[in-house]
TrEMBL record:
Organism classification: Bacteria, Bacillati, Bacillota, Clostridia, Lachnospirales
UniProt-listed Gene3D superfamilies: 1.10.530.10
Domain of life from the UniProt record: Bacteria
Pfam families: Phage_lysozyme2
Composition-biased stretches (Low complexity): 53-63
Domain Phage tail lysozyme, first and last residues per copy: 72-216
Source species: [Clostridium] fimetarium
Protein name: Phage tail lysozyme domain-containing protein
UniProt region (Disordered), positions on chain: 33-66
InterPro entries xref list: Phage_lysozyme2
Signal peptide interval: none
Amino acid sequence: MFAYCGNNPVNNADPSGNLYENIRSLNKQWGVPAPITQTQPPYSDHPQAIEESSSSVGNSSSGDLTGEQMHENATIVYNHLSGEGWSTNAICAVLGNMNVESRTINPGMHQPDGGGYGLVQWDPESQYLDWAVENGYSADSLMGQVKFLLITMQPGAGCWFPYPNYKDYYMPYTNFISSNESIDYLTQVFLWSYERAGTPHTDRRINSANYWSNYFN
């Protein structure tokens, strides 16, 4: 199963698809800091993080944000959704999904090998970009994307629906936003009722959602 990394997935990685290398060696090449601890959010210190001075929070160029920027963006999203009457668990479930989709809750993130864009990687990106132009928002507007997310989650918008084979992870939108079900469950509800990711990385989403739950509680 792990032949691609010399049967040692803990210490080896194969980023090129041609030849595996020792992870510690790769970390030195990329300038990756010490492994993320439980007090740090997932993806907060990626080696390609852009400098804070080159990107204002909530209006970010494509790339990974700094940990501070990510926390500020998460707080903006949290405060807005909380003001809309969302439960903390529902908000953190969405933030956990955003963390995986845009890596650092970066509204300017382009999918590296596809057409996805933004906080939740709308694909095709024109879904959001056309709406943004019509409503006076820049492509990478954090609040523009949050408002578009709320619109497209509404009943009748055609984006929030039970996904075949994952109908256990579905509840009506109005139930979801006020739900106090577990973080793990709500993270998967958003994943399968809205995101429907080809490669779900479910554990990463759940871990990220629980990180934000601990952060905001």
